[in-house]
Design brief:
With 296 residues, the chain is mostly helical. 48% of the residues lie in helices and 10% in strands. The protein has 2 domains: 7-97, DNA polymerase, domain 1 (Orthogonal Bundle); 119-293, hpI Integrase, Chain A (Orthogonal Bundle). It has helices at 7-16, 37-56, 67-77, 83-97, 108-113, 119-127, 131-143, 196-203, 229-244, 252-267, 272-283, 288-294, and strands at 154-155, 178-183, 189-194, 206-215, 218-224. The strands form 2 sheets. Strands 1-2-3 form a 3-stranded antiparallel β-sheet. A two-stranded antiparallel ribbon has the order 4-5. Strand 2 (178-183) and strand 3 (189-194) form a beta hairpin.
């Protein structure tokens, strides 16, 4: 593939190598080519967006794009676009790369529908769970974690945060404790901070040997005997319904974290936009605009 400065030119060339309009698509399904003008147009726009992401993050162009970069891009898109658009992006990129990509679920609908919990409500939910799920709830609440991220907890000294991201020095401002890392959407590894008390309780659950677990079809290496993934999420929702009479889902803890941290940072004198940017990095958002939806 020739080198192009323009992201549009990159996308146009990539599609030109995959288009075959002379034959019906129903007779040539899964042959690696595009047989519709409409599909070609949609895929071209999708690849242009991917090329713009690569360019903005100084990760090269469509020619040098990797599977890892593609999954990271889709994860970032999952925060801002609906499932239909996200699926189109994935289909276009995997056609270009020639490899299947993991299906990514859009968070847009989830973000708009979930609501936060008060500290008292979180305490009541945690008290109605088993010990390992209760600890997971406390950790997720304090650090704003996704369900699957609980399965990826590791001390910061054992794994570095992703280096393709420019991390703000304002992260965890006003908080002290012990640093850990988690792996989030698109393989983004970020640091989180836990209180010394939570860290001590977590270390008591350290496994002698790491174990392999599967959650929603994805394999993880777990190092602590704490709840996580879909099993923990279901436990959380069940406990919430028993104690509160309703459940906003475990994802609501991330809303709570974002709202509480914004208040903390602004009380310390940080301006709104900088506080939102800081919180976005703390919860692992690619786009700080996504964090805005958590603050409603």
């Amino acid at each position: 593939m020739p080198r192009f400065r323009s992201t549009r030119a990159q996308a146009e060339y990539a599609i030109s190598q995959k288009i075959n309009l002379g034959s019906g698509r129903h007779d040539h399904q899964n042959d690696g080519y595009i047989h519709s003008v409409g599909t070609a147009r949609g895929y071209e726009q999708a690849l242009k967006g991917f090329a713009e992401y690569l360019q903005a993050n100084r990760q090269g162009d469509l020619q040098s794009a990797t599977e890892k970069e593609a999954q990271e891009y889709l994860a970032s898109r999952a925060e801002t676009v609906a499932q239909k658009t996200l699926d189109l992006d994935r289909q276009a990129i995997q056609l270009h790369l020639g490899i299947p990509l993991e299906v990514v679920k859009s968070e847009k609908e989830t973000i708009l529908s979930t609501r936060s919990y008060t500290p008292v409500q979180v305490d009541r939910i945690a008290s109605a769970q088993t010990e390992r799920n209760s600890l997971a709830t406390e950790i997720a609440s304090y650090a704003g974690l996704r369900a699957h991220e609980l399965l990826t907890l590791r001390p910061a000294g054992e794994r570095q945060a992703s280096n393709h991201r420019q991390w703000s020095t304002d992260r965890f401002s006003g908080r002290t404790g012990v640093l850990y890392t988690v792996e989030g959407k698109g393989g983004l590894i970020r640091e989180i901070i836990l209180t010394k008390q939570l860290a001590s309780r977590l270390e008591e659950k350290r496994l002698v040997e790491p174990r392999q677990v599967t959650d929603r079809g994805v394999n993880y290496t777990q190092r602590y005997d704490v709840g996580g993934g879909q099993t923990w999420s279901q436990s959380f929702s069940a406990a919430s319904k028993r104690e509160l009479g309703f459940s906003n889902g475990a994802h609501g803890l991330r809303h709570s974290y974002a709202q509480n941290r914004m208040k903390e940072l602004q009380r310390s004198g940080m301006q709104y936009d900088q506080a939102r940017k800081t919180v976005a990095q703390e919860v692992g958002h690619f786009d700080k605009k996504t964090t805005e939806a958590y603050l409603r």
